[in-house]
Amino acid sequence: MFRLLSKESNIFSIPVYIGFLLLIVIIFNILDFSTLGAVTTAITFLGVALAYFCFNSIALNYHTHLPLLLYTFFIFGLYPGHVDLGVAVALLTNSFLLLLLTSTNEDLRKKSYVLVGAIISLNFIFLPTTWPMAVFVLIHVIATSERVGLNIFRFLLGVILIMLSYFSVAYFLDMREWNAIYFPFGKMWLNEDYQTLLPLTPIALMLIYALYDHFKYYNQKSPVSRYKYTFLLVFSLAQLVTIILYMNKNYEYLMLLAFPSTIIVSRMLRFMPKYWMKEVSFWLIIISLISYRAVLELQLI
Questions:
Q1: SS3 helix, strand, coil % of the chain, rounded to 5?
Q2: Distance (Å, whole) CA 164 – CA 157
Q3: Which has the minimum average pLDDT: 59-63, 83-87, 116-120, 157-161?
Q4: Contact 188, 245 (CB under 8 A)
Q5: 237 — alpha (psi -120 to 50), left (phi > 0) or beta?
Q6: Which of 285, 260, 264, 200 shows the shortest CA–CA distance to 1?
Q7: pLDDT mean across residues, the chain
Q8: How far apart are CA 111 and CA 258, in angstroms?
Q9: Which of left, alpha, beta for 45 (phi over 0: left; psi -120 to 50: alpha)?
Q10: How far out from the chain centre does Cα 7 lie?
Q11: Contact 235, 130 (CB under 8 A)
Q12: Could you tell me which of 70, 58, 111, 90 has the C-alpha nearest to residue 233?
């Protein structure tokens, strides 16, 4: 199976995976339809579908079928059937951020910081607990820009434009009371019940091993690969902060880690020394995700 998935994907591959994903989403939501649920599901689907194109943008997985199939299973396993609107918007905005910040067009990246700031603001408005993404973008700007001050100004300009628009609309709609939910630092819900997450333990251990293996052979990797992998790790850290501090039992937050986790484990599988290790690890990932999905379904019964 691993050899089959190691073949190079073609132009028709991504639409096929997106079509399969659409079928999964329809099956999960057809029996419990509502207008808000339909809007949230549509946003979730767009965000997840757009992430398929981010694999080619980051270009860390050699354009093979492996990450595409693994990502599909990650979404299948982690998707609880109904996603909070804020998480759905976060999935969509994260995909846009990845496409913009990993673009190979240097001029496009420089000119996109106003748009990136606007996206971060929208992200915060719908889900304030995603504030670590703003920190991630600032770190990225400082670490990669030649004109740091100018690009931070562009980023803050995008943030301010959206915030001014939001508060102006709220003012004219006579919504003049501050909601405490927009200050997420006062309420942090550390999860103390990890039984539901136990089926995902093998994947967590693989991610830890993948990080160990990456830094063990860090000096042997190309500068481009090191840069993109570091970008992915910092991005993952921003998502992880949100998950640790605010997830509690809202397990749909785990979908925020589906994309970076897919890239990390895909690279780990590719560089394993023995073929049998690759095959066993691949099926262990699939079984873990299906088991976690089964646990979620049992909790709903």
A1: 80, 0, 20
A2: 10
A3: 59-63
A4: yes
A5: alpha
A6: 285
A7: 85
A8: 28
A9: alpha
A10: 25
A11: no
A12: 58
Question: pLDDT above 90 covers what percent of the chain?
Answer: 39
**Smallest Cα–Cα separation from 265: which of 21, 18, 71?**
71
Q: 8 - beta bridge partners?
A: 64
| Structural tokens at position 176 | 């003049």
In eight-state DSSP terms, residue 9 is P
Tell me the residue type at 189.
W
Q: Which amino acid, residue 124?
A: F
Among the listed residues 52, 63, 66, the one whose alpha carbon sits nearest the alpha carbon of residue 21: 52
Global pTM reads 0.90
| Candidate from 2-6, 45-49, 162-166, 246-250 with smallest mean pLDDT | 2-6
Please state, as a whole number, how many other Cβ atoms lie within 10 Å of the Cβ of residue 147. 11
Task: Assess contact for 56 and 63: CB atoms under 8 A.
Answer: yes
Largest CA distance in the chain: 65
Backbone angles phi, psi at 102, to 5 degrees: -105, 10
The answer to whether 100 and 109 have CB atoms below 8 angstroms apart is: yes
